[in-house]
Amino acid sequence: MQSNHSDFNHKLSKLAISTDKLLDITREIGHEKLELTLVELRDQLEAPFTFVIVGEVKAGKSSFINALLDTDKEICKVAPMPMTDTIQQILYGETERIEEINPYLKKIYQPVEILKEIAIVDTPGTNTIVAHHQEITERFIPYSDLIVFVFEAKNPYRQSSWEFFDYINAEWHRKIVFVLQQKDLLPEADLKINFDGVVEHAKKKGISDPKVFAVSAKLEQADFHDISGFKEIRSYIENNITGGKAPELKFQNNVHTLLTISAKLDDSMKNRISQYDADVKFREEIKELIQTQHLKTTKQIEVLSDNLLDSYDNITRQKLDDLEDGLSFMSVVKRSFSSIFGKESSLKEWLTTQAKDFELKLNTSLRDKLQNGIIDVAENIQIMGKLVDNKLRYSTTILKNNDEIFADIAERRINVLKDLQQSFNQFMNTAENFYDERMVSESSKMTPNLAAGGGVAIVGVILAAVAQGAVFDITGGVLTAVGVLFAGVTLGLNRSKVIGKFEEEIIKGRSKMKQEVAEKLDDYTSRIRQKIESNFFEFDQMLEKEGMTIMRVNKVQAEIRDELSTMKANS
Question: Mind listing the domains of the chain with CATH numbers?
């Protein structure tokens, strides 16, 4: 006997561990109702086998309990008007006492023998006018071991009772018996009709073998035990519950309840996981979209850079030919003599004209190509933003904010997404987000007033000014170096030196232009991309946290199911 008791305590300890694991999950996911259910279940693991008595107001629940306990006392008050305005948990106690737990729950301790094996919960009517009473009653269902539905024998078809039955049967699959109370108030034939009606009604609702009892508390308490109907229900209790069977039955019920809660979590987790998978896919699609547009922009910058270099090469080659021809010995001598008689410009004037012509052709050609090319770059950045904005408007919502377990999480997700949409829309319509002081400061022609336009449209202006500034720097460097040499030219004696230096500066200028245009545009577009991505910071944090939570919940859920299934199989 001692060994059996020790084995049972070991089983209870293992059940408590599984309960705690499930409780930790509900706390992590933030579901207060399930958490409260598990806290109460944890506290009730070693409680007696619990009967929960339910039924409509004035169905005779209190009278039924008093008669079942078979004492001379009115443990549950009975009166013409509804008396049970709180839930009353009736437990065994060496002495009588009442403990007020809260305004809606009291514990009544009585020295009644049967209460050593069972506890009874007397509830307000299912049709009580006080709304919270049914809610409080529902809290007892998960750790009840037997639901006793008490009907008025003369009318067992009231809607509120059967709706409550549907809740209990669908949500928790509790073991249920039906009691037709006050059978003394109608003829035997009518009682049989109602008795059979309850049996058929219960079968239609999925109870394969309904247990139905017709009783009269009035007859029982008047000592008409043979006809009161209480012999039958007491016999059912003795054969199926008491006599040492109650602890194991309660253990099995608790295992079943925990499996039910775990299954509820799993059902809702399917939607939560589907939502997470959809959000991850949605986020990856946005990253891919941004990457695709960024690559297109990078390609456009490469094409623009190549076009600029082609123009630069054509103009510098032509100017190199002009210089080689103009600085030949005969050309210089001829121009020198002609200038004496005022027929032609001097060598110095000719060189100045060449320099101005070179600067004009180079800047005009490159400026036109830059402006056209940068319009394409700006449009791609604008398309990138608009595609992201459009994507945000059509994200898939699977987890609804009326989900039984994860409504709060669904609501939080909706709010994060809504904030993301609003902030991104604001980002797209704020010119300053595309205004780059580091680049603008390099161009003397750019002022903050240029950023007074809207959003991405200003990008073309900013980039054009910056790139144009880079071209002026390049031409200035080439012309300055050549101009210094030109100033010291005499009769073409330094021609080869001038041409060589010009070629050297052309190469430097070409390299500088390629580097500045490509690097500056690449750097700028990369930073715009980073700014776009930064809008997703909170969404990405939510996804990261959600992924970790789902992984942990699934892991612990698998452990709990294995533990509980083993307990169920070994019981």
Answer: 47-244 (3.40.50.300), 268-400+413-435+472-539 (no CATH)
